[in-house]
Amino acid sequence: MARLLLAFALCSSAFAAGNTERIRDLATVSGVRVNQLIGYGVVVGLDGSGDATNQVQFTGQSVQSLLSQFGVTLPPGVTPQMKNVAAVMVTTALPAFAQPGQQIDITVSSLGNARSLRGGTLLLTPLRGADGQIYAMAQGNLVIGGAGASSAGSKVAINHLLAGRVPGGATVERAVPNPALEADVIHLELNQTDFSTARAMADAINRSLGGDAAQPLDARVVQVRLPGGAGRVKAIAGLENLEVALAAPPAKVIVNARTGSVVINQSVRLGACAVAHGNLSVTVSTTPMVSQPAPLSQGQTTVAEKSDIRIQQGAGTLFNVPASADLAEIVKSLNALGASAQDLIGILQAIKAAGALKAELEII
């Protein structure tokens, strides 16, 4: 298992000195961002799989409020009992520079105890931003990527039935003001903090524009002064396609303790060390035992359990792990230990504590 896992890490760590990437893949223009929108709505047209309105009170209240807008008023104290309606939350991301009339996709998720949203239609729902203003209106038929059925207490479901999408289901009603392109100076924000990348990006821009047009302000932000007379959009488009020579990334070993995944990048170095690894297994077996009462004793038959616990520890072998500066040699050395993925996590932590692992060990 560990052999396959580390082999995957070898294939997925393709960084090397001299590798180049475009600026558009390394950074974004400051202020050019998406804005999250959210709304509360009602889905109708469900085939008896909606909210139980006697349990989810706000669904019935929402329907009453909706009907009142069309002149339908229910008697006081009457809660409609419906099976084809579900209360939902609607979410989406408003792209930068989105204009009124533009259509965007939305995600619809059940809020009550509906069993399925399949076949439902979202009624007109306002979508608000963090400032409480309405920026889009949503409505449309849901696309659910799943199916399910239930009968006589049995239930089967494929994928998830309580969340779906409406492609182009929201129409932008208000544009978000964005002054990012109004100034002659823009800021490029790196996706990952790195002084070397910031310096290399500034050098690439200066070679293209000439002079000192770009200056790294810190390990995250590069300030660029756009040339006079050139269109800002045209100038930024030219900058985005510039190639930046990247330095080798910081040496890192990423460990996911929940799944047992271990990923090692190309910059990791391993010092000489010796590792002893032994296997420890614990087996618990339970055997049911029936106790019968004596004849005419009016006793009852009882069932007891007999547990047998065994602990087996394999012999530990001391392995000599040589110093390695190449990722393939590191993988070969760790595979020689014959440890499982979970054991490998503990071994890497011990090697790091001994000072032989020349990398940052990050556990997620």
TrEMBL record:
It is found in: Bacterial flagellum basal body. One of its GO terms (biological process) is bacterial-type flagellum-dependent cell motility. One of its GO terms (cellular component) is bacterial-type flagellum basal body, distal rod, P ring. Residues 1-16 form the signal peptide. One of its GO terms (molecular function) is structural molecule activity. Coiled coil: none annotated. NCBIfam families: PRK05303.1. HAMAP family: FlgI. The basal body constitutes a major portion of the flagellar organelle and consists of four rings (L,P,S, and M) mounted on a central rod. This is Flagellar P-ring protein. It comes from Ramlibacter humi. The lineage of its organism: Bacteria, Pseudomonadati, Pseudomonadota, Betaproteobacteria, Burkholderiales.
